[in-house]
Each structure stands twice: as C-alpha cells, then as structure tokens.
Design a protein that fits this description.
Helices cover 67% and strands 0% of the residues. It has 29 helices and no strands. The two termini are 49 Å apart.
C-alpha cells in the first residue's frame, strides 16, 4: 500500500476505537478533560484524513482508467483493509474504490476483474443497507441485487470458459448473495428470496459442478447459504409462509445446527448462541416446541456467555437474544406476559447495559451496533423496568458520547428558551401539553419546560442508525452519506412513537430539521402545521443550532459555529427556517449574553452527567 493509505488506516483505527474514556478509572474532572481532548483529537484526525484522500486517492479514482497495475493492486489491498469479513471500518470509501475498479474493468473489458468487482460493490451496498436495519427503510437492496445478479449471470454464459477458480468462486458467492437483496419480512419478496436461496443451495450441492473446480470451498459456500436461509425465520413468524417454505427453512436450520454441533465437539467449545437461537426458533415453528419453551430457551441463551466475553458471542447473548425474546412475546396466547416475563426483561436490560459499557469499539463494532438497534426496536417497557427514555440515554452515553452531550445541552437550552416563551409570549405555546390558551400555558409552566427539555434530550434519537458512520469515518462525508443521515429524522420518529415514555416526542424527532414555514428542510412529507408540538419543534430546532456552538457537540465533519453567528442565523431565518418567536426572545436585552454564559457552563455539566451515567451502567452488574 501507499504511505497515505497506511496513514489513513492508522487515523481510522484511532478514531473508531474512541467511544469515550472509562468512567470507572477516572475522577469526574479527569473524565471531563479526557473526553474533551478525545473529541478535539478526533476532529484533527478527520481533517488530516480528509486532506490525505483529497490529495492522493480521489484524483486517482477520478482518473481510474489511467491507473497503473501497481496502483490498482494498492487500491485493492487498501479497500480490503477498509471492509472485510472481520471489520467494516469505512464501508463508503470501500464502495467508492470498488465502484471505480468496476468502471475500469468494464472499460477494459476485463471479465474476471468485473465479476470480482460486482461482488465487492454488492457487499459494500449490503453493509450500507445494514445501517438502516432493523427499521422499515431500504435504499440499496435493488442495487445490491443487481450487482450480485449480474455477477451470477456469468454462470449461464461464461462459467465453463473461465479457467480462473477464484472467478468461479465469486460467481457462486454472488449467486448465494442475491438473496441478501430481498427483504424477508414482506411475503411476496420473501418468496423470491427463498427461491434464490433454493437455487443457490441446489447448485452448490451438485457434484458435477463441484467436480469442475474442486479447489473451491464448496461446503463453506453451502453452509453460508443455509445460514442465510435460516435467517428467514422472520418470514415464518409473519404467518404468510406455506408448508414448502417451512420445510426449506427448517431443513437449513437443522443443517446449521448439525455443523455447529460437529464444530463444537472438534474444538471443545460451546455452541454459537446465534445459531442455537435459530435452531430453537425452527423447532418452535415446526410445532416441536411451545412458545413458553422457546422463550425459556432464548432466555437461557442470554445467560450462556460470560460478561467478560466482549466479542460477537457476547454481543448476541446480551443484545440480540433479548431482542428475540421480546419479539416472540407477541406469540403468547392473548398477548399475555409469561410467568416471570417482566422480571426477565428487567434483568436482560440490566445485563445488556452493563455489558454494553464494557464493549470495545473494534472489528465487532458493526455487528454490535446492529444488535443494539435490534434491542431498541424490540424493547418493551415493563413495570419497574427501565423506561425507553432512560434506555436511549444509556445507549447514547455508551456508544455515541458526542451525541449524548449534544442532546443533553440542547435539552437544557430548550428548557430555558421555553421558560422565556412562557414569560414573554405564552400564546405561542398554546396547544402543547393539552393547554388551550396563554393562561393555561402559564399554569402549566413547569410541565411545559420539562416537556421542551425532554424533547431536546430525544430529538436526535434516529442517529442510533448512524453511530458507526459518525464514530468511524475519518474524512468528510460523501454526498450520499449526508443524504443517508437525513433519514435519522424518520428513524427517530419510528423508535420514539412505539413507546409510552417517548411517544409524545416523536414529532419533534421527525420535524426538527423541517423549515418552520414548511417550505424547506426535511423530511419533505412532514407538515408542521399538523402537529400540536410545532412550537416545541421550533424551540428544539433553535436549541440545536445554539448547542452546535460547543466544539465537542458539533459534528466532526462541519466547522463549529460562533455563538453570536448562530444567534444571528436564528434571527435572520425567523419566520422562514426558524420559529419567529425565537427571534423575539433572543433580541431581548441581556438574553444573548445570559445564554452564551450558560452554554459554556453546560459543556462541563453535560460531561459530568455522562460520567455518572456510564459509571452507573458499569455498576448494574452488581445488582443483577
């Protein structure tokens, strides 16, 4: 690799491993200082990484057809370090590189290279799509499927004319991966996914095809296809699957289980909890196990891995298995909670948080973040348990400290702005919290202030989908990434709306980037005039702008605003981008100076609050 590529990888590693200092090993003051230093170091690393790519990589990608063989080889090695089976350090950069290499192969009519690049571009798109799961939005499935389908199509035309065994391997891997481009939760699409997997399994099992290229890892390819087929248990849960689908998925689950048992005996290791779950679920769907027995089995998996296992097994046991437990509760007769179910949820949540604060940001980070999202989407609030609001605070504190500090400060500013609004223009808040007029607003002052502050603590909830993108990339964002992050408004709306403790704030998450006059911003399909919390959305949007003047809370990809410039932006955009009453509040003598002083103080207070929360998460293990 080139020197700039090696330096970029070092910068990337230093950034991706930063999930905040260990609160258990520092005093509060040391924690605050260390946290702020890490944020500043990260911003410097991003600036350096961006400069390296602009100077060295992007000109080469723009002129890829003139690249030398050595440059092509270096690019391939570099991309392999950015994303592979063990790590996804910078998926979007991996995508850009392989997209350029694919163009090179097409222009040069290099068939073997094209097949390989179609496979890698498809895998990039698959990992990009994973950022959006398990939510309802899908952006890259069609493109991913097209790449894998084109590579797989060479099986019908050029397969036997290709002497290179590696190329034949990419054809088969692509054939098996076509199924990744189908969403298995939708019945009609799930049928097509199952058809694609059935064809792949049939061809990979064909002795005549295997004999043509015996050096390929056929059993591994076949096993991977069976694993993917086993993931279609969600299709079985939907109630739309027929007998043939049940038989195929259950057969794959049995195949995976038998291989797991054999591998465990050979290595003397316990079974992988992920595939143990799949087998249990398959047994339930085949009628061989009751729902109560399945829930008992899944709960046992949540306790099957030691707390000090901070790798993939631990991530599944402490994050994913509890999510499956909560998802399968809907199959209980009458929707009732099984005996001890609420206690189990409380215990699983405590264990999850205690484990999450210990988990490093390493090659398992992408998988960990997916499992964390899975837990959040499946979570059930139970009596005496952790509210969804508190759960979100803990997850942000553990995995996205900058986001936690930003929302904490935004919440405090929003509370202060709301107080001024109650004092100066109470009629502007009429309708919020059930108020009808200015008198009602004054009477419920404290409730309104608390509502605004809590809204500020939750407005960026949708960023849980993009922790990896925000935490890991060591460069400026690509335009597509900027567009992707915009989806956090919708994702936050979906998450908050599903829980009693947060549902009232869902519209704030969805609308905080929408222009006040409904003529700009996003999401474009959100009508601010249709929500009763429009005034609070205006308050939180303004508070977000003011909070971004704190260097540690601003996105690492954007310059930090000066406080006075941020205030002038709010005043200039009043009535168009921002709520008009915000400008009136900020123009009042002494307000700007008061708020500026408060924001500086809030910086340290936010870190101290995060310190206490992270320390408390680590202590949860003692109470389990």
């Amino acid at each position: 690799m080139r020197a700039y590529q090696e330096e970029y990888l070092r910068l990337l590693k230093s950034v991706s491993e930063n999930v905040g200092p260990d609160a258990g090993k520092m005093t509060p003051e040391e924690f605050v200082d260390a946290s702020r230093k890490l944020v500043l170091q990260t911003r410097q690393a991003v600036e350096r990484g961006t400069a390296l790519l602009r100077q060295e990589l992007f000109p080469l990608l723009d002129n890829i057809l003139s690249a030398t063989d050595e440059e092509l080889s270096d690019l391939l090695e570099f991309a392999g370090k950015l994303m592979n089976n063990q790590a996804q350090s910078d998926v979007w950069l991996h995508y850009r590189i392989h997209l350029a290499l694919m163009d090179y192969a097409r222009h040069r009519n290099l068939q073997d290279m094209l097949i390989r690049e179609l496979y890698f571009v498809g895998m990039s798109l698959y990992n990009m799509e994973s950022m959006l799961k398990p939510g309802p939005i899908r952006l890259y499935s069609a493109r991913m499927r097209m790449c894998f389908s084109e590579a797989a199509s060479y099986f019908e035309t050029e397969y036997y004319d290709t002497a290179d065994s590696e190329t034949r391997g990419y054809i088969h891997r692509s054939m098996g991966n076509i199924a990744l481009g189908y969403d298995g939760t939708q019945p009609e699409i799930a049928k097509r996914k199952l058809e694609a997997l059935t064809r792949s399994i049939r061809l990979l099992s064909d002795p005549d095809i295997r004999a043509k290229t015996p050096e390929l890892p056929w059993d591994l390819y076949l096993y991977k296809s069976h694993q993917e087929c086993t993931t279609m248990l969600n299709y079985l849960r939907s109630g739309h699957a027929g007998p043939d689908a049940f038989a195929k998925v259950l057969e794959s689950a049995q195949t995976v289980q038998e291989r797991q048992l054999r591998a465990a005996r050979e290595r003397g290791e316990p079974l992988q909890p992920r595939w143990q779950y799949a087998y249990l679920a398959a047994m339930y769907h085949s009628g061989s196990m009751t729902i109560e027995e399945l829930l008992d089995g899944i709960y046992a998996l949540t306790r099957s891995v030691p707390m000090d296992d901070l790798g993939g097994k631990g991530a599944f046991a402490y994050l994913s298995a509890p999510a499956y437990y909560m998802e399968y509760l809907k199959f209980m007769p009458g929707g009732k909670m099984p005996t001890g179910g609420e206690l189990r949820i409380r215990r699983m949540t405590d264990r999850m948080l205690s484990w999450l604060i210990r988990a490093p940001s390493d090659e398992n980070n992408e998988q960990l973040l997916f499992f964390a999202k899975q837990f959040l989407y499946a979570y059930r609030e139970v009596e005496g348990g952790v509210s969804f609001f508190e759960l979100l605070q803990d997850v942000f504190a553990a995995r996205y400290p900058v986001g936690y500090v930003r929302m904490w400060i935004t919440g405090k500013i929003a509370g202060r702005l709301a107080g001024w609004a109650v004092d100066d223009c109470p009629g502007e808040l009429a309708g919020v919290c059930g108020t009808r007029d200015a008198d009602g607003v004054r009477e419920r002052r404290e409730e309104l202030l608390d509502f605004a502050m809590t809204a500020g603590r939750l407005y960026d909830t949708g960023m849980v989908h993009f922790f990896h993108l925000e935490n890991s990339a060591c460069r400026g964002l690509f335009e597509e990434e900027e567009e992707l992050i915009r989806l956090h408004a919708h994702c936050g709306y979906e998450l908050l709306g599903a829980h009693e403790s947060t549902a009232a704030y869902a519209d704030v998450a969805k609308g905080h980037h929408r222009y006040y006059n409904d003529k700009g911003g996003y999401p474009v399909d959100f009508d601010l005039s249709s929500t009763k919390v429009r005034p609070v959305i205006g308050i939180v949007a303004a508070a977000d702008v003011l909070a971004s003047t704190v260097e540690e809370t601003a996105s690492r990809y954007r310059p930090v605003r000066e406080f006075d410039a941020a205030v002038e932006e709010l005043i200039a955009g009043a009535g168009r981008k921002y709520a008009p009453f915000m400008a009136a509040l900020l123009k009042k003598p002494g307000r700007r100076e008061e708020l500026k002083t408060a924001v500086e103080k809030l910086r340290s207070e936010a870190y101290l609050d995060m310190y206490r929360r992270r320390a408390a998460m680590a202590e949860r293990e003692k109470n389990i």
